[in-house]
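pasting for ref
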Amino acid sequence: MSERDTICALASGQPPAAICIIRLSGDRVWKIAGALLECGLPNPRHATLTRFRDEDGALIDEGLAVFMPGPHSYTGEDTLELYLHGGPAVIKHSLEALTRQPGVRLAEPGEFTRRAFEAGKLDLTEAEGVADIIEAETEAQKAQALRQLTGGLAETYDRWRAELTGVLALLEVMVDFPDEGDAPEDTVRPILVKLDELIGELGEALGDRGIGEKIRDGFRVAIVGPPNAGKSSLLNRIARREAAIVTDIAGTTRDVVEVRLVLGGQVVWLADTAGLRETSDVVEAEGVRRAAKAARDADLRIHVIDGANAEPPKGPVEPQDVVVFNKADQRPPALAPDGALAVSADTGMGIDQLEAAIAGFISQRAASVEAPVITRARHREKLSAGLASLMAARQLLEDDMGAELAAEDVRMALRQLGAVIGVVGVEDVLGAVFSQFCIGK
């Protein structure tokens, strides 16, 4: 399946809709327009009203055609977009007629954007920004995706790469002219200074507590506490639906039950967990283990105290965690420990205050890093590897182990940073990135 095939796909939402967009890209666009559009190939960048017919002359629809010749198009290739009525029959007939043309096939997920990347229209982080802005649910996700789409991340990585290239040039001077005196007398010191600066910047970026990824994927909040404290009821109350099973039997919840919410303008995964207690039941014990892991991995924990048995929370309570005194409609709130929020999952008492506390914490955490330069696990992996290479290069220079070895580590760091924006990369990495896109983009 050659990448030189002309590709087509539905580039708008699923039908039915008032209007749909059928997108084509490739060097056969002009032949397709001549064969299937009554107007022939439209004038570039002018919306042309025309009739669209199949190869047998049967009318598919009447709509607008817009032709964008390469290289000044999204993909860098000749591109044609058809704006038609968005009914299922029109879309089906359109795609069937197009793919019956020689050298035309349906696009794979993300293939239009991949062609844009390969044509140098976008770097890899900008391409990921395209996917992220399509999927954005919140203003925070949209803002982060727009920053990435408009080159905000690439600018930082390009600067790091430029500075590392300068470091590598100085190291190569040391390698090429070790004894002739052509190299500056104190070449190592400025290299160490620059490496320290870059190591500090990369370390600071990696120390962002995953804020960029959390804005994109969601923050984790775990509801923990003893059996029958009302954790599942609390989850259902906040979720506004019966997401978790609720019974009077202790140990009903055996696995982690998660719901996706938007609180404080951020996506939040709220998890109900098994009651924390010692048990000889193998299945319940596994649930307790998973509950403990969910609590450890969470950004915030809601420790539920049973109002009928107001014991202190089980497990460590971090300063930011929220302690709630549940069943406060049945017990005097005075029984609640100091600082605990009195709530009732049954009546809804105190739930607004609990949601406000969660939203406030999440909003504050999200704002703790102004402009994250890591928004995906892929970025973090490459940046971590690059930092390790820089630290190795610095140690080699500090130990006077030779500029050749240090230069190789700096080259490795350059490759890792380049892989983030797609300056260097391998096919399986690109495939993994673009396979997550929707078809038609």
